[in-house]
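// run 5 | inverse folding | seed 20
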C-alpha cells in the first residue's frame, strides 16, 4: 500500500507527516487489498483532507474531512475512510 501525501497552501511539518503515517496504521488490515492512497491536505483557514484510495479489484473510494485543527480533520477523515473500507471489503466478499 503506497501512501502519497500532498500539501496545498502550506508545507508539512515533520510531526504532521508522522501523525498521518501513524493514523494510517489503523487501516493496515487491508494493505494487501489497497493499491495506493493519495491524501491531499489543503490549508484555507481550515485543514481540508481529501483521500482517494484504490482497491485491487478496481473500486475507488473518496473521503474527506475538515476542521480548524490538523489532527481533528485527519481523525474525521480516517473515521469515514475506515467505514468505507469495511463496507467495500464486505461487498467484495459477497461477490
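// decoded
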Amino acid at each position: 500500500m503506497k501512501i502519497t501525501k500532498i500539501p496545498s497552501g502550506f508545507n508539512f511539518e515533520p510531526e504532521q507527516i508522522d501523525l498521518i503515517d501513524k493514523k494510517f496504521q489503523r487501516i493496515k488490515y487491508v494493505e494487501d487489498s489497497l493499491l495506493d492512497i493519495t491524501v491531499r491536505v489543503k490549508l484555507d483557514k481550515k485543514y481540508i483532507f481529501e483521500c482517494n484510495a484504490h482497491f485491487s479489484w478496481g473500486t475507488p473510494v473518496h473521503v474527506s474531512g475538515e476542521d480548524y485543527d490538523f489532527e481533528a480533520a485527519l481523525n474525521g477523515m480516517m473515521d469515514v475512510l475506515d467505514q468505507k473500507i469495511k463496507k467495500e471489503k464486505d461487498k467484495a466478499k459477497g461477490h
